[in-house]
Structure prediction request, 203 residues.
Amino acid sequence: MKVVDAVVIGMGPAGEAVAGNLAEAGLETVGIEAELVGGECPYWGCIPSKMMIRAANLLAEARRIPGISGTSDVQPDFAPVAARIRAEATDDWNDQVAVDRFVGKGGTFVRGRGKVTGTDTVEANGQQFHARRAIVIATGTHAAIPPIPGLAGTPFWTNREAIAATEAPSSLIVVGGGAIGAELAQVFARFGTAVTIVEGAAN
Prediction:
């Protein structure tokens, strides 16, 4: 069992920041992540979604040209958006840059799921750690799948599949009209998808 100062389970936005700060402060820190360091925002959330919104807004603006300042012939093409998300936002869903950044601060990175095995012990990927000072739990969340009859047997997207899409579907039902649902609905609608939003609340 390796003795360290701190173990951070979950290296999303909060966990990555905490682990990095601890390592920079000179504490022997282990960061554990099963998926991608950085979490939802840089890979399946705010950063790639803003690229999609920017592209969709350009289409919307181009469609306003007739009758205002000239003529336009707009043909939506989702392929450049998907390519840009892969190349610029997510590095094709590779987090090596983020891992190297943490390790460069003096941290130790472990790929896997952390399990708290005692008041000051953690296990991950066959390795055991004794945390002298702290265990930080920053495991984040995941998309909530509503208990809709028949949904389990139907192929469906969460925000992750929507962000990783390589083409705009012909039609889409978005369950939930919150910020993420509304953003993605508008993006795909502007790329020619027939979109329906289903929202249980009044607004």
Notes: The longest strand covers residues 127-137. Residues 2-38+95-137 form a domain with the FAD/NAD(P)-binding domain fold (CATH 3.50.50.60). The chain has seven helices and eight strands. The chain has a mean pLDDT of 96.
